[in-house]
Specification:
Radius of gyration: 15 Å
Largest sheet: 8 strands, antiparallel
Helix content: 10-25%
Number of strands: 12
Number of helices: 3
Strand order of the largest sheet: 1-6-7-8-12-11-10-9
Strand content: 25-35%
Distance between the termini: 40 Å
Structural class: alpha+beta
Shape: globular
């Protein structure tokens, strides 16, 4: 917990403009991290919150000239503040190197959307990638996984709890490798309040034009 918390706390203090470029069947696994995803229906409420509608788009993150230049673009709601990460390699969690942090505080919530570049000489399958990231957490629990889409792009989604609080991640394949977007908040109330922003990111994701 100390390592993961310290890395994320330091990450929020080392942001700057500019950032390196780095099937539709829903699935769900048993909570065991080693389990493979299996088919599941759309799920309203926790843990997937598929009934939550996306927020209204206001700003596009990812294109050249935006706060973070990425190998994928997506929209965020009004007042969410995107900043690129300086020295992201210092804050690597498993195979994930932070590229961009999008702060909800200006919009009235306490939490972040973060974009991570997935690195490593040997490509990992999606669940192994997420599990290596989760290994940096303090005993994550209730892990569930499924294959999904982020916009038109193939994606793999995970949900879990840490200290009883719900977290979320989506791993997306792009032309320049894999990016992972995570959502975390101060508590469950903040997490649920920020879900429309996460759903907007997920539904609006695409490759740069």
């Amino acid at each position: 917990m100390i390592r993961r918390t310290a890395a994320l706390a330091a990450l929020t203090l080392t942001l700057t403009a500019g950032c390196a470029r780095a099937s539709t069947e829903d699935q769900k696994a048993s909570p065991a991290p080693s389990a493979s995803p299996t088919a599941s229906p759309v799920v309203a409420g926790p843990p997937w919150y598929d009934d939550v509608a996306p927020a209204t788009a206001a700003t596009t993150v990812g294109p050249e000239g935006s706060a973070c230049t990425l190998s994928m673009t997506f929209s965020v709601p009004a007042k969410w503040k995107a900043k690129a990460v300086k020295g992201g390699a210092e804050f690597t969690l498993g195979p994930a190197v932070p590229l961009c942090e999008i702060d909800a505080k200006p919009a009235g919530n306490i939490g972040f959307l973060r974009v991570w570049q997935i690195t490593g000489a040997t490509p990992l399958n999606p669940q192994d990638t997420v599990d290596k990231y989760l290994a940096a957490f303090d005993t994550p629990k209730e892990q569930q996984y499924r294959r999904t889409k982020a916009g038109p792009l193939d994606a793999f989604e995970a949900t879990w709890t840490e200290d009883g609080e719900r977290k979320r991640a989506i791993l997306v394949s792009t032309l320049y490798g894999k990016l992972m977007i995570t959502l975390g908040g101060l508590d469950t109330e903040e997490f649920e309040a920020m879900l429309p922003a996460y759903q907007l990111v997920k539904s609006s994701a695409n490759l740069p034009k």
